[in-house]
Amino acid sequence: MARLEALLAPAADGEPLRDAIGGLAAELGGAILWLDGRNASIALVAGSRAVAVQVLLELRSRSELGVLVSSREGMGGGAPASISVLEHVLSFLQTAVPGVVVRYRSDRDGPIRQAAAA
What we know:
By secondary structure, the chain is of the alpha+beta class. It has one domain: 2-Layer Sandwich (Alpha-D-Glucose-1,6-Bisphosphate, Chain A, domain 4), CATH 3.30.530. The chain has helices spanning 15-28, 80-96, 106-109, 112-117; strands at 2-9, 31-36, 39-46, 51-60, 64-71, 101-105. The protein has a 6-stranded antiparallel β-sheet. Strand 3 (39-46) and strand 4 (51-60) form a beta hairpin. It is globular and about 35 Å long. Mean pLDDT is 89; it is low at 114-118.
């Protein structure tokens, strides 16, 4: 099962971020569900094998935006559809939200526990 995490900062709160997340869902062709004012879930189908992928976006304290991409795609096979979705999400958000940068990616930096301890 693929589980890819990323952390972006600084992420502006409020309407601009909600607009960006809405635009992201539209671009991905996914269904968006606002869990509350700061957290959203986007469900979509990705890749040539029609893999069901879920993207969770969580605005955390200190203006950090957590991104979690999960699917049933096997990590042993490299999870290409899930990684493609993560890359698309990060690219879109860096363009749509001025000044935001990727601070952490689990596929690049390892488990988040290591990043938090550093």
